[in-house]
Amino acid sequence: MLSSDVFGPDPAGGRCPGCHRPLPVEARFCAACGTPRADARGPETAGRKIVTVLFCDLVGSTALSGTLDPEALRGVTLRYFDAMRAAIEEHGGTVEKFIGDAVMAVFGVPSVREDDARRGLAAALGMLAALRALNEELHAELGLRLTVRIGVNTGRVVTGSDASARQALVSGEVVNVAARLEQNAGPGEVLIGPDTLRAAGEGVRAVEVGPLRLKGKEQEVTAHRLLGLELRAPERLDLPFVGREAELALLDTEFERTATERTARLLVLGGEPGQGKTRLLRHWLELSSNSGRFGAGRCRPPGEQAGLQPLADAVTALLAKAPDHRQLPGLEVLAQGLLADGTPTPSPEDTGAALVELLGALAGRAPLVLVIDDAHWAAALLLDLLDRVVAALADAPVLVAVLGRPELLDAGPAGPHRVLTLGALSDREARQLAGALGGAAPAHLLERAGGNPLHLEQLLTAPANKSERGDGVPLTLQTLIGARLDALDPAERRAVDLACVLGREFAADELAALDTAGPDLSAALRRLGRHRLVVADGASFRFASGVVQEVAYECLSKQGRAERHERAAALRSVRAGGPAVVGGHLERAHRYRAELGLHGERTDALRRGAAAALAEAGARAAARTDPGWAVELLTRATALLHPGEDGRLPAARRLGEALLALGRIEPGRVLLAEVGASADDPVEAAHARLSLAAVGQQRAPAPVARETLPVFQRAGDQLGQARACLRLAQQEQIDGRHAAATRLLARALRHAERSDGEQERASALGAIGVSLWRGPVPAATAIKRCQDLLAAQGRGRRAVRVTLNCPLAVLLALGDDRAGAAACLAEASHHAERLGYAEAAAFLPLFGATVAALGGRPREALELLAATAAAARELGGGALLSGALLDMARLHLDLDERRAARAALAALEEERARAGGRLSFATLAERDGLRARLAAAGGDRVPALRLARGAVEVAGRTDSPILQGLAAADLARTAALLGLDQQRLLSAAAAGGRFAAKGHGPGVRLAEALAGHHPRREAVS
Known about the structure:
Layout: H1 3-7, E1 47-58, H2 61-67, H3 70-90, E2 94-99, E3 102-107, H4 116-142, E4 148-162, E5 167-171, H5 173-184, E6 190-192, H6 194-200, E7 204-212, E8 221-229, H7 245-261, E9 265-270, H8 277-287, E10 294-298, H9 309-320, H10 331-336, H11 338-341, H12 348-363, E11 368-373, H13 380-392, E12 398-404, H14 406-411, E13 418-421, H15 427-436, H16 443-449, H17 453-461, H18 475-486, H19 490-502, E14 505-507, H20 508-514, H21 522-530, E15 534-537, E16 540-543, H22 546-554, H23 558-568, H24 572-576, H25 579-595, H26 601-623, H27 627-640, H28 648-661, H29 665-676, H30 682-694, H31 701-715, H32 718-734, H33 738-755, H34 758-774, H35 779-793, H36 798-814, H37 818-835, H38 840-854, H39 858-874, H40 879-894, H41 898-915, H42 921-937, H43 941-955, H44 961-978, H45 981-998, H46 1001-1011
Parallel strand pairs: 4-6, 9-12, 9-13, 10-11, 11-12
Antiparallel strand pairs: 1-3, 1-4, 2-3, 4-5, 6-8, 7-8, 14-16, 15-16
């Protein structure tokens, strides 16, 4: 049964969406409350908003129909429906439909109010009260009593309009849960959902019921039985007060002028909800010596109180602080109307004159402050009366402060007045408030709050597991901002609906391009600025806070979002933002169409376009050494692409490489193995195999590089050639052939520059630095070359500054420049932290350990090497792990810790066995030199000399003076342990010569000590 079947159609003009009074056909605004009529706002399309849904059903109606005559039953039913509808509409609800004996009502349609949840609860209690009154009549007339049960639930629904039925339509899970709560309620009970309890705020008396298993809901619902509703505090009085020094000073100035000039002044304090207008005035009054000489009244939404009631409350508060107020002039007149019931009885003129007399008498003793809060809801009569009273109080020191939201600035007092607009907190003040609320707020949360204290409080204190945070905004803020959005005129709302799709910032011409057939929205944007919903920033605009933009976006229908995102992707400004921005719009357009079941070629084209744009953006992010961003973009791209579809292999390969770079070895390995095994694209397969080899997966890098280099050369793939040359060069470095490595690295650098491969550029330059350190170039020359490379290649490139500063630090340490070495390591660490590469956790401490060892700090070096070994194992082992284990063995042996040295060498053998393949010349030379020293310490002369001399011979096959010097030094130490002085002297001299040629200060000192047979406990790398 529909509402119109029972009550007949609405009045010809419909009803006001604000106070539900009948409207004449010709009226565009309600004369009582000023709310635009629903059809004056423009045709309502499907949207999403926070509403409160109420279901009420008769208990035992079937038995009732069996005992009453059908005609009598209809009469009872009509009276029941009439009573229920009156209670619903009294609290601003809309009866959506009658279903048999059940009533469904919605609070928030056609317009959302910030207190819709409280209105729904008040209506439920009002329905029970109305039924009790009806039952008294029915019992006297027919001997029967009706019983109902009620369910109330709050949340986001899809709304629309049905002009033929003249009723609002809502749908969604919120409606179903409300119906299930009603079915679970007992006779005479009201069950409310958890979000209703939260949205209604303080003052709700309820007891927990459940959790309930509701039909159609997988998760249990914690419901509450409503017991009563009390007045809630209008604001949080325990919040700390921060900032606002300028505003407090202005209030002081206005009050001082009022007192010294002895004249009434009108001050309008405006600001968006939550900015702290009431808190500011209360804090000022607390600081003022005249804090006892004020009275305050608060306006309520239209229809909830008499038009002058806020003024009556303020005057009553003033009188309560005047002990002999009964003798004051004007009081007799005011007692008849204003102070009795908030009306202008006997007339507005008489009331105004009496107020002037009364306030003049009170102000004769001391200046007064009269406060009218929430004046954006004030009746026109109240504002007009305030204007006349202030004008008439020419010689009385009365400061009238009118507080309200931005719309008050447009429709506020007509007479002379001072305006104080309360803006956002500064970043410093917002952080201070966050700290007082319980902790530091992350930067993104401060940005979302936009300096609004209420928004910041709600975002900080809303638990992450509450259902109200499904879209990331607490329900209380959704209703508050949703109500402001629903109060906008059609042009303003259209501007918001278009802008929110573009993000926090937007330009007017972007809105015009999104809505080419619509009207010019420039004037609407200016009005939105006055409403403090958007802020002008030169030629562009931005939402006052991120939360406003988020709520506006959530209010759009999914179909509306899809259409606007699709159009946004074609905007010139969006395309200028790059493929990630374009792909984001296309991705969301596709997702919303798919969620609505709108499949077909258009939806599929959106999917392919989004995947291509995101894959391109991911490739750019990977090339520019931002693996975290690359993983996000490429994950989204690959999720959109089907197996075998064009573009999926390159995206999957790049995603696998980025995952490896972040240390997520297993998922990266799986993706790269899949690409490497594919025969569809040999170039992508070659890239995947080489990437796997580079991190110690499947095969050694050099053989794979030799296999894949011709593939890349035939395809003209510059990036692939850079990578293959890098791997070949790294093998030459491992074998100690640094001149050959440098030639390959120069070739790799040229290919990297041509391909815009920033990571490959950084790797090539870093490897060049390593060969300058370990190779034959003297340290002084090598330092100059590294510094030149940094100046030429490092500007604006974090990865280059990491990879070059590390070997430069060691070169400076060779020359005993400890401060310079420390500075280079610090800069490398600073940039590496922001890049996020997992490998940095292994190589940064390795270079740090080398510098520490050269500086005579072996214990510090050992700690750093332990960190390197742990990180390298997580990354799959390889050269980094082998190098760390060798250096650990050397340091332990230099400290005469033979057992620990043997353990490190044993771990090196385990790693070699795991990885397979031969030992490099460099590793073999260092390992055998250390083994020789251990054998000599145990008195094993023959194997010790064989190993030490073999190490010198192997080192001689390299062009590394450092490796050759270390091998000669190990032979000298072996000889010293065996008592072979001639061999010791010869080997020490050879070591000194190699170290001197390199410019290796610590090495030269070690050789001199060995020649004197007083070896220092000093490590040399």
